[in-house]
Amino acid sequence: MGWPAPPSARTSRLQASNVPCVLWALLAAGCHGPGPRKDSLGSCFPPLPHPGPGEWTPWGSWSRCSSSCGRGLSVRSRRCIQFPREELCWGDTHEYRLCQQPDCPPGAMPFRDLQCALYNGHPVLGTQKTYQWVPFYGAPNQCDLNCLAVGHDFYHSFGRVLDGTPCSPGAQGLCVAGRCLSAGCDGLLGSDAREDRCGRCGGANDSCLFVQRVFRDAGAFAGYWNVTLIPEGARHIRAAHRSRNHLALMGGDGRYVLNGNWAVSPAGTYEAAGTRVIYTRATGPEETLRAAGPTSEDLLLQVLLQEPNPGIEFEFWLPRERYGPFQAQAQVLGWSPRQPQPREVDPQPLESPTVIPPRTPIPTPEPCPPCPDTRGRAHRLLHYCGSDFVFQARVLGRVRQAQETRYEVRVQLIYKNRSPLRALEYVWAPSRCPCPPLGLHRDYLLATWRLISPDGTQDRLLLPHAGYARLWSPAEDSRVRLAARHCPL
Ligand SMILES: *[C@@H]1O[C@H](CO)[C@@H](O)[C@H](O)[C@H]1NC(C)=O
Ligand SMILES: *[C@@H]1O[C@H](CO)[C@@H](O)[C@H](O)[C@H]1NC(C)=O
């Protein structure tokens, strides 16, 4: 339940520092107590909270690959430098990545077999008896060195396998510290980075456009009809229809890949344009084509009509820069006017029987509307006094989602906080077009609210619409310190 975990899970801190704003204002007015300190302007501020986590040293270099052939892993590490009172650094001390060496020569002994064989002929199990050992894969933890005594019906676990041992033959995962980890597309073991639809590792599907259309020409005669050009670079291509007609595919050289020259090809896998095209036919009647791409040349999708065309659904993802030329070409060939336009999000499964109505093209997202004016002293006061946190932050990252924007920020200087802030926080804005927008790698003064999730397990820093977010400057810093003295009691 709740929201995705921020860099620091802001949990269980609901009791902490529940000093209301007004109390800080009181303290600030008189500088009573040990906490508040005087700044250069002579006004008082709450004490800075705990100094947060320590700092990592830079990563060391990657170690040599753990194996000399086939797959292995290499590792690098870093250290946490902590000053007194600082917490441990966040993150891992070690990072593991997959390394791919040339294939092992035929007959080479696999890594796990080698580790079992080390015990061959040695007395084990507290007796003088010796055994020959081979890997045993039926035991619960595949990252334990479970070895079967050849000719006997028992196995023994000799502790963990060495790091870099495949979890099981043919599996993708490798054992690291007794756990089976698989690599993300960034090559890091245990990483959850995946390739997006555009083929970018960890991308957000934003460097390509999704083309999804239905070809509805009825066909005035039996024979081959052009359905669509599938430009070079297309990915995740799918085409399907339910009729006794046949899809045909032509390569860039004008030669048919399948169903050409009035001859029906068998269902199966075909190589074309640098990718594998999977062609299936079912007695629905129904036909599908699929290819992962990216294609290395243009393909022409056609249909061989034998009966009226009930509609051919097709879709693919196209690099942004290829969309314009594709669209222009489709128009020249007269293919587009009656066809729905591309959508960028939420592709429907091809099985969906719905007809997609024609739309106007949306090649890029709607530009954001202008933001309301949020300048002025009253606005600053309102937000300083009303908010739960005021701090200076560097914007490190931004993720736009359908209904909200998430900024990752590094907290630089805290002016006001009603519970502890960590060095890294997420700040959420309630729109994909937040106002005011924050630029990457810039320093801002932010006033944020704390918003607790409905199940009470997590809280968020919320930058409200038209809230207080101004580029940090010494002048703005002074103004905000002055504002602190004017909060109503
Ligand atoms: C990219 O698009 C696919 C298919 O629509 C979707 O499943 C996936 O979650 C999207 N990825 C991101 C990062 O939005
Ligand atoms: C189909 O498209 C190809 C390539 O653009 C073109 O050469 C051909 O004439 C078209 N065929 C028909 C029937 O429109």
Automatic annotation (TrEMBL):
One of its GO terms (cellular component) is extracellular matrix. Residues 368-487 form the NTR domain. Residues 337-369 are annotated as: Disordered. It comes from the Eukaryota. One of its GO terms (biological process) is proteolysis. Disulfide bonds join 65-99, 69-104, 80-89. Keywords: Disulfide bond, Secreted, Signal. This is NTR domain-containing protein.
